[in-house]
Write a structure and sequence with these properties.
This protein is mainly beta. The chain starts with a strand and ends with a strand.
């Protein structure tokens, strides 16, 4: 039976001010005292009641329009000990963090529906329910557990069937398919829901593929072996991608009924065969929304780009500074520029500390498809900051100028309202952050 759990009230516990441009000053039209001003809600040239030839001041109308477009931003924060909301005002200067939701439970990923509904789907692992999916139909005010969470199909010929250990990744379906969602799990599994996350069914074309055993035969990450980075081509609901750590990037042209590896050109330091088709470790895979044939990935062995028509990955991370390297977890694309991406490097030397290189965190931006990279660390700690950013924990808000955000393994969220040129800590002392996403409202 589904459980309905009210989300905690969003009483602020921390308020910080992000370093951003000061808000625009309100403009007040200088109108003679006896003249009655026309309403500023319209740009239509309507004469004033007392003076037919007078018109509203154009500057006032423009200013009101600008302020109206400045919508607040809400970040959904998934952590090792529950979920939080971090909300800004319209200027993105003032931020408030909510009380926790599902405090004490692991929340891996939290995604809202970009198709216009108020549905939010959460992949979690709770103490009393185990690995499951929680869902909300009111933008996170109340929550209900899925009546049928993701589960592998059982077969008589299996001595021991696979069991879902965690629901690691959530992706909404194609715009033409309202109510459809996908989930990636550990051990590697892919699942589909057609009722906004209430019931889930295994995608046999992936989970039962005749090559599944070989694709998944090269071991697991310290956090397990999982499916992540499930992406649906905005031009075609049948065309989709999924990544497996460890396994590689895979592609389907028939809505998951069949799959093939897409890893040509990727380096793999632990596999003897240099051109092996599978066994790779993509940390995060994306395509650009305006050009879905432009693919990027942050891999265990570097940063890569692919033109899908060519079908070969190019290691653009070779252009990063050698002292920093090109190892990390997240990669984020500018929503309006297919050549612009950000990464957050981490130390991948010797025993793989998985911390900021030399304790000096920074983002790097490329505005030319990875040919060159620029360091962005203004406002970030100059030294002794040994945290990292996980694959789901970096995002952007789509505003102008673009806002960038990342959450750390140390429970901090940093934000930039100038495309990474400067950073400010928005909140501290949260649990370890697993994912950071925008609430679509």
């Amino acid at each position: 039976m589904a459980r309905k759990t009210p989300a905690s009230k969003t009483k602020a516990k921390t308020t910080t001010k992000a370093k951003a441009k000061p808000p625009a000053k309100k403009t007040v039209a200088k109108t003679p005292a006896k003249k009655k001003a026309a309403p500023v809600k319209t740009t239509k040239k309507t004469p004033l009641a007392s003076k037919p030839k007078s018109k509203p001041t154009p500057k006032t109308t423009a200013k009101v329009k600008s302020i109206a477009k400045a919508k607040p931003v809400t970040l959904m924060v998934a952590t090792r000990k529950g979920a939080f909301y971090l909300r800004s005002d319209g200027t993105r200067e003032n931020w408030k963090v909510s009380k926790p939701v599902f405090l004490g439970h692991i929340v891996y990923h939290m995604v809202s529906d970009p198709r216009g509904s108020k549905v939010v789907v959460m992949g979690s692992k709770t103490g009393h329910l185990g690995p499951t999916v929680m869902r909300s139909t009111d933008n996170g005010k109340t929550w209900t557990e899925a009546t049928k969470p993701p589960a592998f199909a059982k077969h008589d010929w299996e001595e021991k069937g696979r069991s879902v250990e965690n629901v690691f990744w959530i992706t909404p379906g194609h715009e033409s398919e309202p109510g459809v969602w996908y989930a990636g799990t550990s051990p590697p599994g892919l699942f589909r829901s057609e009722d906004d996350g209430d019931t889930w069914h295994p995608i046999a074309g992936f989970n039962e593929h005749h090559m599944y055993g070989q694709w998944m035969s090269n071991g697991a990450t310290p956090g397990g072996q999982m499916v992540h980075s499930v992406r649906i081509d905005p031009r075609d609901p049948n065309h989709m991608y999924a990544a497996v750590s460890v396994g590689g990037v895979f592609e389907s042209h028939n809505k998951g009924a069949d799959w093939h590896p897409l890893n040509k050109g990727c380096q793999s330091d632990w596999i003897p065969e240099p051109d092996v088709e599978y066994g790779h470790d993509p940390h995060c895979f994306i395509f650009h929304p305006l050009n879905p044939d432009r693919l990027y990935q942050q891999n265990h062995c570097g940063i890569y780009k692919m033109e899908r028509s060519e079908g070969v990955w190019e290691r653009i991370g070779d252009n990063m500074p050698k002292a920093v390297g090109d190892i990390g977890f997240p990669i984020v694309a500018h929503p309006e520029d297919p050549d612009c991406v950000w990464v957050f490097p981490m130390d991948g030397t010797t025993v793989w500390p998985r911390t900021s290189p030399d304790g000096k965190p920074c983002t790097y931006i490329s505005r030319n498809g990875g040919k060159t990279w620029k360091k962005q660390n203004k406002g970030l700690p100059a030294a002794d900051a040994y945290f990292t950013v996980k694959r789901q924990a970096m995002t952007c808000d789509g505003r102008k100028p673009l806002g960038l955000y990342f959450g750390t393994s140390g429970g901090e969220i940093w934000g930039s309202s100038d495309e990474g040129d400067s950073w400010q800590c928005l909140v501290r002392y949260l649990p370890e952050i697993y994912s950071l996403t925008i609430l679509e409202d």
